[in-house]
Write a structure and sequence with these properties.
The protein is of the alpha/beta class. It has two domains: about 90 residues, Rossmann fold; about 35 residues, no CATH class. About 35% of the residues lie in helices and about 20% in strands. It has seven helices and five strands. The strands form two sheets. The protein has a three-stranded parallel beta sheet with strand order 1-2-3. A two-stranded parallel ribbon has the order 4-5. Helix 4 links the parallel strand 2 and strand 3. The longest helix has 16 residues. It is globular and about 55 Å long. The chain starts with a helix and ends with a strand.
Length: about 170
Amino acid sequence: MTRSEAKKEALLAAGADQVIIAGSEDVQETILEITEGLGAEVIYDAVAGPGLEELVWATKRSGHVIVYGHLGAMEWPTLLPLGACFLRAIKVHGSFRVFDFTGHARLGLRPKAKAVERAKRFISDGLVSSLFSARIDRVFFGLGEYAAAHRYMETNEQIGKIAVSLDN
């Protein structure tokens, strides 16, 4: 899911099978159409906010909604639609799931050094083999450009990563 036609085209070009434009398309209706009325088995939501209810209703009965971020925390309330969860037996998880696998001492999760090393090796191998690639939208040079980089990020116009280089 994205918020602009340009980003939709970029995601499709990168290999996505389906991309929904939130705000322009009916998210729930489109997910149900794509899944032939069943709903999605798992939905990952990095934003939360008022769109969470629509995502819960678009989830398959006994499916999962994993909220792993709250990007709109300062702007929008997030109300959990308990009725929809009960009626459809939806399981909603708030998660930093990566830490379940790697551990995180400050969160009280035992560090798992072997898992971290496997993950690093997997990512490194994927980058070396070009299985993974990073799309850089724009590079800002020098820490003096950090505020400009942040303002650019807030426009949500980027397609890819925004980098700040320490080299001027």
